[in-house]
Design brief:
Elements (H helix, E strand, L loop, with lengths): L3 E5 L3 H13 L3 E5 L2 H10 L4 E5 L7 H10 L6 E5 L4 H9 L4 E4 L4 H14 L6 E4 L2 E4 L4 E4 L2 E2 L4 H12 L7 H9 L9 H13 L7 E4 L3 E4 L4
Parallel strand pairs: 1-2, 1-3, 3-4, 4-5
Antiparallel strand pairs: 6-7, 7-8, 8-9, 10-11
Helix pairs in contact: 6-7, 6-8
Amino acid sequence: MGVRILVIEDEDEIADFLVRGLREEGFTVERAEDGKVGWHYLQGGGWDVVLLDWWLPATDGLQLLQRFRQQDQVTPVLFLTAKDAVSDRVRGLDNGANDYLCKPFAFEELLARVRALVRSRGQSSTTLAYQDVTVDLATQRSERDGNRLDLTAKEQALLVYFLRHPGEVLSRTRIYEQVWDERYDGMSNTLEVHVKEIRRKLEAYGPRMIHTLRNRGYMLGEMR
């Protein structure tokens, strides 16, 4: 699943741009379209970063942030807004925002700020490891035995999902729903192709660790 990002944004065009771009970078992203739905998602917890629009239907972003911080929630929040006056930026930061980005913005800058916020949570919360394989969720850097792995965004997301569930048998249906965010139709070989590529890159530096279990799915770990 990797780094989990919640986008609370009512403008469909901006939200689609953010969700698509962040998912292509390997992040797990959900979107809430107004303050009421956003509060519901925030209450569910488990987010690594929240991208929050100031102007929202139902409950505006500032009110949402104040309520969130009153619950002693420390999840990093990045305000996205067209309000660019210094007084507005100060107001947002004073009420608990960790960072502030004015619209319109370059995706590259937003991505850099998101990674900085993930890193601010501490190295222990941003690094996944199993045996000699590590993934830094903030920088999206993957290594085996100290060697960098050249993974695509989807390969990275798939490896992260395996690393979060070592020793578990993961069905194809479960993997598709979590990594591709779609239902497995029983016909596609997309998963098999991606697993083959990850294996090839991992096994350049060590023995096989992702195993196929006939009619059951896949497992990261040692076969017994």
